[in-house]
Write a structure and sequence with these properties.
This protein is α/β, with parallel strands linked by helices. The protein is built from 12 helices and 8 strands. Belongs to the HMG-CoA lyase family.
Length: 311
């Protein structure tokens, strides 16, 4: 193991949010059964994941893979040490998330709100300009918190837009400042199309930290479209990010972002953190075993490089 000196304070630990059941699968054309989604969820819990994005509350005609969101959530393990996230693009999504808790059911724990940092992509992804997204997300965060859900928000396309190209950092920071006024659990920056590079990541997260109160933490979400995802994850850790999203096997992609490929692989992120002496609580061998099992479900090898090297 190596302890690498860092430009910023080296965190004692990093939290990994497994997004495979939602972001990892949403772009898959062949529908994965509810039982297999639950098998993935249960295996990743066994590997040590304690926070997981399990579904999104979107119209099934737009994202058919998420048509069974409520069925998946209904059979989630009822564990006190787990936090389950449901992605919500609008207030209707928050209402569906709250409905999963009716009748004393476990349901989701967090409403994962989303705003896009470009008008064109925002309109294609969820029918909202930036201005409309700010208003909607303010209401969503307030409503979710009032009704007993934790609320967090992701600023999507924070490092570049598939339609408009460059996204000014000031646009991202202005959105973050607006969202911070509603006191979400955390604010995430997402490189939805995998165009960011480490210098950009350090700069943007460094500036974000300066404007956020200490109790609002930062989360990072990277796609590996241009093979910079893991380097960007390390840059985020160096910048004080304490939570990183990852998807088993490197699965993923956005139905509304042309040519965007998968998330950083959970196995690859675990390897990076293990080798850098940063605690995270997830077992690499069990994650690789889950990868090998899920390959039989997907009927193809998964992109994770570490899983291939360590198999």
């Amino acid at each position: 193991m190596y302890t690498i000196s860092m430009a910023h304070e080296n965190p004692i630990s990093v939290n990994i949010v497994e997004v495979g059941p939602r972001d990892g699968l949403q772009n898959e054309q062949e529908i994965i059964s509810t039982g297999d989604k639950l098998g993935l969820i249960n295996r990743m819990i066994d590997a040590g994941i304690r926070r997981m994005e399990v579904a999104s509350f979107v119209h099934p005609k737009r994202v058919p893979q998420m048509a069974d969101a409520e069925a998946v959530i209904a059979d989630l393990p009822d564990r006190e040490d787990m936090s389950y996230i449901g992605l919500c693009l609008n207030k209707r999504g928050v209402l569906r998330g709250l409905a999963t808790k009716e009748g004393g059911k476990r349901g989701i724990d967090e409403a994962g709100c989303v705003i896009v940092a470009s008008d064109t992509f925002g309109e294609k992804n969820q029918g909202q300009t930036i201005e409309q997204g700010i208003r909607e997300n303010r209401e969503m965060i307030r409503f979710a918190k009032t009704e007993g859900l934790k609320a967090q928000v992701t600023i999507s396309a924070a490092f570049g837009c598939p339609f408009e190209g460059h996204v000014p950092p000031e646009t991202v920071l202005n959105i973050a400042s607006e969202m911070a006024e509603e006191e979400p659990l955390e604010i995430a920056l997402a490189d939805t199309i995998g165009v960011g590079v480490p210098g950009q990541v350090e700069d943007l997260f460094g500036r974000l930290r300066e404007i956020l109160p200490d109790h609002i933490t930062m989360r990072a979400h990277f796609h590996d479209t241009r093979n910079t995802g893991i380097a960007n994850a390390w840059a985020a850790v160096r910048s004080g990010v304490s939570t990183l999203d990852a998807s088993l096997g490197g699965l993923g992609g956005c139905p509304f972002a042309p040519n965007a490929t998968g998330n950083i692989a959970t196995e690859d992120l675990i390897n990076l953190l293990d080798r850098s002496s940063i605690r995270h609580g997830v077992d690499l061998r069990k994650a690789i075993a889950t990868n090998q099992w899920f390959e039989t479900i997907m009927k193809r090898p998964l992109p994770s490089l570490v899983a291939r090297a360590e198999a």
